[in-house]
Structures
1.
Amino acid sequence: MGLFALVPGWLWACLLAVLSAVSCTQAVRLEHARVEVAQLRQAAAMAEARAAELSRSMLVKVAEAQNEAKKREAALRAAADGARAESDGLRDDIDDIRGQLAGVTGAAAVERAATVGAVLKQCAARHQELAQRCDGHVSDIRTLMDAWPTAGPDGSDVK
């Protein structure tokens, strides 16, 4: 007779039932943990996909903004070149008028002076319009900069 024979059968049955119950409980807990891990992995994958989508979207927007900025720069350069050419032309015209003033009559000189005055008046009006537009753009930029978020949804600094 061995050591196991000393323990009654009903005690072995109870011990086996307890071990079986503990084993089943642990199996259920393990299955719940596996399900939870699978759900967490799925949520992480979805979050990564969303982050990648947002990143791609932001890159597209940045590229579009840079392309638009290049177009604006080209248009501004063209406008500046046109204004420079027009200014040079006006300067040449004024130099021509100065050279011709010595040989013209008083009435012709008055007429030319009135024409030059009208041109200068138009230039001054255009410069005022341009200054107002520039001030408006500066104000818009300041508004956008002031309204730009400084913290993300989680409270982290985004500057």
2.
Amino acid sequence: MPDPQLVVGLGNPGPGYEPTRHNVGQAVVDRLARRLGGRLHALGPAWLAETAWAGHPVYLAKPTSFMNAVGADVAWLLRELALEPRALIIVYDDLDLPFGRVRIRHRGRHGGHRGVRSLLEALGTDAVRRVKVGIGRPATRGEIVEWVLTDFTTEERDALPEVLERAADAVLELAAHGQGGVSVL
């Protein structure tokens, strides 16, 4: 039987955060759950769906903790599902990519993303596969917190379904193949 995969969409809990740039990772997990026919149910500190893709069991998860403290929840999920960090794929927003750009990475540092930092510290490794979804950068550094916690513009919302589809495709590419390298979609 092929190795199971765990896909975690990073974001903040609650309906007030759902439409924000910071929650694009969870929006991708929602899209994957619909595409793969999975139903999210509560399991410990997350919402979890059990699905499959290309012969691989694929768990989809949305942690219920805030972004900056997500590491402990993801570590708990990995233990609960008896998975190693190499089975993990995280999906999250990236300020350093223009809006709509999707990038696959197989390892690396957190790049200033506090959720990713929390996760890498909790797991003790930077060898975590990731799908980064570009949200663009505000004009000044002082606007970053407000930027990630605000809704997308009208133009971005119009383009978002296609961006989420490409990000979901990237996750499924990793789940099916998990091969090295970096891709930009």
3.
Amino acid sequence: MKIKLLTTALLVGAISMASAGKFDQQTTLLQSDQTPNGNSGFSTPNSSVLLNFNTTQGESWDGQDDTDNVFTTCVSGTAITGLEWNNVTIETVGASWLSEPVLQFTDSSGSASAGTILNLTVGVGDDAPGVATYSSGGIIDLTDNNIADITSLVDGNFMIQLFESFDDNADGIDALFTSGTLRVHGTDLQAIPAGPNCLFGALPPVIIPATNNFALFALFLTLMFFGRRFIKQK
């Protein structure tokens, strides 16, 4: 009887410790080590690259930087300034929660040093297993969240890591990004074609045209010139 009670107590204690660990998760959509001073670290986006989970599912395995995790390079450029996702569906495995899969963006070193890291948790707040679909409802701008741009190193590449904020299945898949798209906004971004380095379908960049003030001024002068000639002729 004593052995049975002791076993039960240990089991309850183990469950309580695991639950405590799970409830200690981050509760924010975006998390970064970098809070810029003033307006430093903020850029104006001029392009974006689309990552497509409909082409290849994203696998979320173990804790941050575990060797089993997915590390992929699909985007290059100067800086990442915002993110936008549409109909991204997460499917968990076993006891893993929807709030635990994280998409991490860093420079090509994969370093979590200040100024190079951004963690995105699209299922934040959904502390339960299951299947759910998420959309951002527009661009989530880093500036609006007082987060500095994620800047690249000399090679211009960005690393994306998929990991679990709480690992329920050691050396196994905890969750899958089964469908949907994630658009990365930034400056001078380019898509790295799907292959050994990029595991997801990265579509060519959408270029955001910059306002050309000189061209607008020239157009204004042209209209003024022809307008004056038209008035004189009448």
4.
Amino acid sequence: MPAIRQARDRLLAAAVELESRHGVAGTTVAELLKVSGVARRSLYMHFANGRDDVVTEATAVAGQAFLSDLRSAASALCPARALDAIVERVRVRLVETDFDSSCPVLAAGLGGQTVPGARVSAGQTFLAARQQLAGDLEGNGVPAAQAASIAGLILASVEGAQAIGVATRSTDFLDDVRTQLSALLLTSTQTTATNRTPE
């Protein structure tokens, strides 16, 4: 049983890696087998519909890791520090992969026309992430409507800067996102604290 589980996990790990580097289109059966080291027969034993099933489930796995990273970042005591933690994770991935790897969830969403299940999973992850971030902001006193909007802005900005970073082979856009959003978060939390009615 452990060997069977290991083969499945290796296929999923290979799919996440390939999505982040080559997108959904580049996550072919041949590449999955090459990177995972799993036999073709094993692939279809674990995933009846082959590549599409692997990519869809791998996107869900990557999504859970994405949300887990957000929860970890939110353990910081303030939104600005949480943003720093989120941006730093992205920066490390870009630099360590020589700007050859981006968010696999974003890649699944963009390339999901060939694997609709992956696109659905990516969308669910981003919606859950926005809700999670918004809850953290509310916990720091930001009004619900504003928190949801800022959470969406953070996600869109960081994901966009990541994609541009791959294209430009630079973290400059990511630095801009960190600078401007940190200022916005500081203003939002300070304004909310100022407007609170003393008990």
